Automatic annotation (TrEMBL):
GO molecular function terms noted in the UniProt entry: hydrolase activity
Record has Isomerase as a keyword: no
Domain Phospholipase/carboxylesterase/thioesterase: 123-202
Taxonomy, superkingdom: Bacteria
Species name: Roseovarius aestuarii
The protein, known as: Phospholipase/Carboxylesterase
Segment forming the signal sequence: 1-28
Keyword DNA damage annotated: no
Keywords: Hydrolase, Signal
Organism lineage string: Bacteria, Pseudomonadati, Pseudomonadota, Alphaproteobacteria, Rhodobacterales
């Protein structure tokens, strides 16, 4: 349509402009389902938004080694648990650590060949979700399982302002451990007492394929680092034991720090999502 015809039919021009705008909005939000990821410069993520959510709280969950954001969204029970509490779920996807290898997060473990800096990638994901879906950056809880849990520890330590709170499970720092973290945080860590994959005491193994030895740090030493960052007393002041769940809470000058131990192994205890969301909501977000 020419400028002359627009002058003759201003209403038609405005209608066309509105249609183009609405089409752009539809395309901008037409992603995030289990089968259609949202793309950012460094990768992709999936998102599930409950009805009537509109700028409500959001859980960003980092999958375990070899998994993906699509698989996280495929866990209907987990998605529905969060949705029933009014939470959106963002599930970013890690990249293969090498050609033909499983997806893995670029955890600080002395290994230098990861294809992406995931601290930057996660910042991109959140920024995109804020702009595209109206996610509130002040109501984000970052969670993760296993290797994803280790990535949560790294983010909390080195980019503490990425989220309001952090709830990793079955993962912690790798060696070499950081000497200190950037700022106090709100952190709730969950771990299986008999976890053989990520033992509480840490472990090392040698990868014969790439001739490299990597080591998981001691979870207890990691908690000591968090106590230093949050200015907490050495001993927990609150204890609770019920139904195979042991909880310790430190009363810190800054942030908050709590540990949940369960009698299982490398997994999540029953009711984990509920416990984590209850804790998050008590922070007064």
């Amino acid at each position: 349509m020419t400028a002359r015809s627009c002058q003759n039919s201003l209403r038609q021009c405005l209608l066309l402009m509105a249609l183009f705008f609405l089409a752009g909005q539809t395309l901008a939000q037409d992603c995030g389902s289990k089968n259609v990821p949202c793309l950012v410069e460094a990768g992709e993520y999936h998102i599930a938004i409950p009805a009537e959510w509109e700028n409500g709280p959001t859980v960003v969950h980092l999958h375990g080694y070899g998994s993906s954001g699509a698989k996280v969204l495929g866990n209907a029970g987990f998605v529905n648990q969060l949705a029933s509490r009014g939470y959106a779920l963002i599930a970013p996807t890690a990249l293969p650590w090498h050609d033909g290898k499983p997806n893995d997060w670029s955890v600080r473990d002395g290994w230098q060949i990861y294809p992406r800096r995931d601290l930057i990638f996660l910042q991109e994901v959140i920024s995109d979700a804020v702009n595209r879906f109206g996610v509130s950056p002040d109501q984000i809880l970052l969670t993760g399982f296993s290797r994803g849990g280790s990535m949560v520890w790294d983010v909390a330590c080195h980019s503490p302002n990425l989220a309001l709170a952090y709830a990793p499970a079955a993962g912690g720092f790798w060696m070499p451990m950081p000497e200190k973290c950037s700022a106090p945080v709100n952190l709730l860590h969950t771990h299986g007492f008999t976890d053989p994959m990520v033992p509480l005491e840490g472990r090392s193994w040698h990868n014969d394929e790439v001739q490299f030895t990597i080591s998981q740090a001691d979870i207890w030493e990691g908690l000591q680092l968090w106590r230093n960052a949050n200015t907490c007393p050495s001993n927990a002041t609150e204890h609770e034991i019920s139904d195979g769940i042991w909880r310790k809470e430190w009363k810190c000058e800054y942030g908050s720090l709590e540990l949940i131990l369960h009698k299982g192994g490398h997994g999540l205890p029953k009711g984990w999502a509920t416990m984590v969301l209850d804790w998050f909501e008590q922070l007064g977000h």
